[in-house]
Amino acid sequence: MEKISSLLEDKPVVIFSRSSCCMSHTIKSLISGYGANSTVYELDEMSNGPEIERALVELGCKPTVPAVFIGQQLVGGANQLMSLQVKNQLGALLRRAGAIWI
Predict the structure, then answer these.
(1) Does the reported pTM lie above 0.90?
(2) CA–CA dist 101, 37 (Å, integer)
(3) Which of 39, 58, 61, 94 has its CB 3.0 to 4.6 Å from that of 67, i.e. a possible disulfide?
(4) Tens-digit pLDDT profile for residues 19-57
(5) Alpha-carbon distance 6 to 25, whole Å?
(6) Following CA atoms 28, 30, 36, 41 in sequence, which dihedral angle do they give, to the nearest 10 degrees?
(7) Can you tell me the distance from the alpha carbon of 14 to that of 9, in angstroms, rounded to the nearest whole number?
């Protein structure tokens, strides 16, 4: 968890992704569509990617990507983000985290 916490520090939106994952791409596009500038960690391009992926599993991320943290809190994966979008709650969550202002 410490490894994950250090990557989340002072960042309103963090996405753990794989460069070849279509759902990760969809979630990154969804969040950037709000104008939020998210920090993206491509686990398949990081030397410690497998270690981070194990830490995500310990946090309950299944599947491990995409894993989205908003306001340093785990929101979940693609299903959870799409559910928030359908319920019109994602924008408010991004605003509370300071990721967007409008």
Answers:
(1) yes
(2) 12
(3) 61
(4) 999 999 999 999 999 999 999 999 999 999 999 999 999
(5) 24
(6) -10
(7) 10
